[in-house]
Amino acid sequence: MNTAINSRIPVALTIAGSDSGGGAGIQADLRTFAFHCVHGTSAITCVTAQNTLGVRRVDAMPMEAVVAQIQAVVEDIGVQAAKTGMLLNQEIIFAVAQQVEALQINNLVVDPVMVSRTGAQLIDDDAVKTLCHTLIPKAVIITPNRYEAQILSGLQINSLEDMQAAAEIIHKTLRTKAVLVKGGGMQGDLRGVDIWFDGDKLEVLTTKQVETKNTHGTGCTLSAAIAANLAKGKDLWQAVQQAKEYVTTALTYALDIGEGQGPVGHFFPLWGLGTGDWELGKKQGSREQGAG
Ligand SMILES: Nc1ncnc2c1ncn2[C@@H]1O[C@H](COP(=O)(O)OP(=O)(O)OP(=O)(O)O)[C@@H](O)[C@H]1O
Ligand SMILES: Cc1ncc(CO)c(N)n1
């Protein structure tokens, strides 16, 4: 008898960089997709030698290799949603924007990775311009952090009101459906606060502020969770609210590894249930076998 189960599963694509430390980038995105029961596919734009203390080296993939990965995935498997993360240079950004158009990739979430949480600029000014003019207008939502929102809006952001003003300016000037200005780089209580603006509704998304130094990859995780929810057919507002809840809970289970900022705990229910001990799962399995 054929016992195979034919499972249909939503598919999402991440176009982003690899983080050797496993906390951000492609690694965080694929874990987030898996948690949401979405099949994760990837197009790697660059390889970073990175750990919890910082980025040591970045090697860009050839633009043609990025394009080939996107085409291989979309032409055969198809994707219901996609996200972009670290795109690194102007050539890759331009090529990704062309592929999004040519392959009609819908539900695109752009995490405009330009500046690290510590304020260091990761892409040059020409690449920022290309991102604004080619890729961002194709997104259903963009998710800048504090420093990225400063660049995109031209405002200094030091308060909730500044975050709101920046979201409005970014929406107006960059023509995306929605903007989420993230508060992780703010001080005090604002660290857990994000601002949503879609041209109509200006909303403050507030969760508790989690007291942890282990916040590496929160932005990647949030944008990947939004894409996963969109792939599952949720509307954009619902996708964002649920993604925010997910990243907050994952932060409360953040992993204390390395000397610097550890990653969030993407698979927290396993730890919450005490199954961090994998032996437990095996024991339960053998008990069931014994009973049969
Ligand atoms: N200490 C915290 N407590 C609660 N929420 C937080 C905290 N730090 C970040 N967040 C949330 O995590 C999400 C990501 O925001 P953040 O500003 O950290 O993005 P980012 O700088 O792009 O992240 P990264 O570069 O580390 O991937 C947002 O929803 C933000 O509110
Ligand atoms: C590969 C990669 N993408 C994104 C970020 C931003 O968190 C990072 N540190 N590394």
Automatic annotation (TrEMBL):
Question: One of this protein's Pfam families, by short name?
Answer: Phos_pyr_kin
Q: Does the keyword DNA-binding apply?
A: no
Q: Which UniProt key words apply to this protein?
A: ATP-binding, Kinase, Nucleotide-binding, Thiamine biosynthesis, Transferase
One GO cellular component, as annotated: cytosol
Q: Name one GO biological process term.
A: thiamine biosynthetic process
Key word Kinase present: yes
Domain Pyridoxamine kinase/Phosphomethylpyrimidine kinase residue range list:
19-264
* Signal peptide range: none
Q: One GO molecular function term? A: phosphomethylpyrimidine kinase activity
Catalyses which reaction(s):
4-amino-2-methyl-5-(phosphooxymethyl)pyrimidine + ATP = 4-amino-2-methyl-5-(diphosphooxymethyl)pyrimidine + ADP; 4-amino-5-hydroxymethyl-2-methylpyrimidine + ATP = 4-amino-2-methyl-5-(phosphooxymethyl)pyrimidine + ADP + H(+)
EC assignment: 2.7.1.49, 2.7.4.7
Pathway(s) where this gene product acts? Cofactor biosynthesis; thiamine diphosphate biosynthesis; 4-amino-2-methyl-5-diphosphomethylpyrimidine from 5-amino-1-(5-phospho-D-ribosyl)imidazole: step 3/3
InterPro entries in alphabetical order: HMP/HMP-P_kinase_dom, PM/HMP-P_kinase-1, Ribokinase-like
Q: What protein is this chain from?
A: Bifunctional hydroxymethylpyrimidine kinase/phosphomethylpyrimidine kinase
UniProt organism field = Nostoc edaphicum CCNP1411
